[in-house]
Fold this protein.
Amino acid sequence: MKKRAISILLTAAAIISLSGCTALFKKEYLSVSQYTEGEYDSYDGYMCEVSNYAELKAAIFQMVEKHSAEERIRFTDYDGNMQSDPAQAGWEVKAETALASYCVEYMSYDLNRIVTYYEAVIHISYKRNEREIENIISVEDREELEEGIGLVLAELSDYAAFHIPNAVMTEEDVAQTVYNAYAADPVSCAVLPTVQIQLHPKSGVFRIVELELDYGRSVEELDRLKLELSQRMAELTDALQKTNKEMFALDAYNLLASNCSYDPDGSLRRERLLDETLSSTAYAALVDGCADSQGIALAYSALCRVAGIECLVVRGSVDKQEHFWNIININGSYYHVDVSADSTWGVGNSFLMSDEQMQARCWWNIEDYPECGKTSGKQQTNQPQQ
C-alpha cells in the first residue's frame, strides 16, 4: 500500500457526465455586474477559457485540486447557460467527486459581462487544509484499506483518510474493515476504538473514507497494555514449535484453554476486581486470564499470527446469544476453532471443525467467511445435547 497521486482519476471523474442535480449550492450566491474599465487590470488570479459545460466543471475541479480560493473563468463561444451553469457545475463537483466532497465547504461566484463576453470569478471556501489533503492515503481495494487501517491502529492515530475506487462500500462495510484490521493483530492496539465514519461522497466510483478514532484511554495507558500483552505473548509462545502450523494451532488452542477461563457474563472479572471494559480483548484473555468469547477469539488470532497462520474472528451466535470464534487456514483449507467452547464441548468438537459440524450448534453469515470443509481423517465425536 502506498500514497499515490489521485489528480488524474479525479479530474477524469469531474469531466465525465455526472448524474444531474438541479438544486443550487445552499450557500452559493450569484452576482452579475457590468464591466468597468480597469476593474480587472490588477487581478492576478489564474484565468482559463471554457466553451462548454464539461470544460466548466473541469476548470472548477482543477481549482479544488490546486486548493485555489479564487480564480477567473472566461466563457468563449459558450453553448450553455452562463448565468446558472457555474452554480450547477459547482454543485456537481462538490456533491459527486471525492476530493471536493471531502475538502470544500462552499462555493460562490461573481458573473461579469465584459462588452462582448462573460467572465466568472469563482470563490471556494475549504474545510480541509492542503496538508490534510496531502495526507490522504490512496488504496486500490478493501484489502489494502484493511492494511492501511491496521497501520493507523498500530500508531494509535486518531484520524485518517483513505481514497478508494469503490462505488458500493457502505459505512457498515468500513466499520467491519476496521474490526478486521484490529482482529488481525490484536496486540498492536490493545483496545478496539470507537470510530466515526464518513464517506465522501455518499455514492460514486471514487470515495474518500474519513475515520475519527477514539480509544477511550490515554496513549500512556494504551502503551502499557500493549507492552504487557506483548510480554505475555512472548512468554506463552516461546516454547511452541512454529514450523508445523497444524501442530502450532493445536498447541495454541490448548495453551489458551488452560490459561484463560471463559467468562461470558463478566462475573469472574467482577469477582477478581478486574477492568470489565477489557473483557472483550486479547489482553483480558492472555494477561488477566478470563475473557468473553470475543476476547478469547482475539487472543487466539494473536497467537496464530506468531506462526503466520491466517486466522479470522467470526461473529455469530449460539442459542441466539452473540458468540465469537475463529476460522483458520491450514495448508490451504479453512476450519473453525472455538476455544471458548473447550470446557463444554471439548477439543474434539471445537478444533478444526467443518461448516456442517459447526452448524449443529452455531449460526453465522456464511457469505461473510470462507467455506470450511471437513477435516481429513477426523470424525466428529458425540456432542452433548443443548
In short: The CA atoms of residues 190 and 222 lie 7 Å apart. The chain has a mean pLDDT of 86. The chain has three domains: 7-129, 136-214, 219-368.
